[in-house]
Amino acid sequence: MPGHRPVLLHEVVDLLDPRPGGRYLDATFGAGGHARALLERAPDAHVTSVDRDPAAANRADELAAAFPGRFQFYDMDFRDLAELEAECFDGILFDLGVSSFHFDEAGRGFSFRFDAPCDMRMDPRRGISAAEFLEGASEEELVRAVRDFGEERRWRRVVSAILRARGTGALQRTGSFAEVVERALGSAPARRMVRIHPATHTFQGIRMAVNDELGALEAGATAGFDKLAPGGVLAIISFHSLEDRWVKRAFRRYCGQPEHAEDSTPVQERRAVAKMLTPRPVTPAPDEISENPRARSAKLRAVRKLPASP
Length: 310
Known about the structure:
The chain is an alpha/beta fold and 310 residues long.
């Protein structure tokens, strides 16, 4: 679709290596770019997709019409994959990046490029908006969102500014909220070769908090691995260091390896249920980053599920 480019498309398809008659799950449908590529690569392959964004259903209808009987879409959050009746997939993909549609549609409130209600929910039918979170979250919750999720170095200034702005109306819209952050931090330092808006990291952190993106990843990826057939591949594209850290540790655990340097679990207690396919994360080539700057922080990791021990 115009304006949307699936990240690491060829790398994903090569890792999942769809075969004729295979069954695949795209747990983050978005615009359907990855799902379409899987369907085109292997005749008679079947793809199931889920997405919690209600706007994705219309885009999914177009793919279902193009591949009759080979594509099925569910309006659901991938954190609820355990409830999906279908099982034994030959490949599963999670693309954790925020869809271009979210950033480019002013009314969704994801971007300070447009002045809109400060919402940021992937599924506006559930949960609370970013404005409600900013007005009511505890100071500890704000610190976690801005410092940990947003990775904002000057988080104290931002959190203090948010607390002072409560009740003034400044947290209700993306434009005024971005101004609150910009006044707290000042303009981007001139020494930076690539300047970003001072509110960029804070907007990212608030979005991750509002959508509980790390919690969804843990629940969804765990359920996804359970639904893999023996020999099936689980591939995850992450865009944030905390997401990538969770994926890296989970995959190392699946492969019977220490999760991190301080992991002292005895060897005899480790159990390998998967084989690592990406000892190091796959990242976009310079050409892809040039064509799609939003891909620059993407990291792709994958494992293959081993047959069950007798």
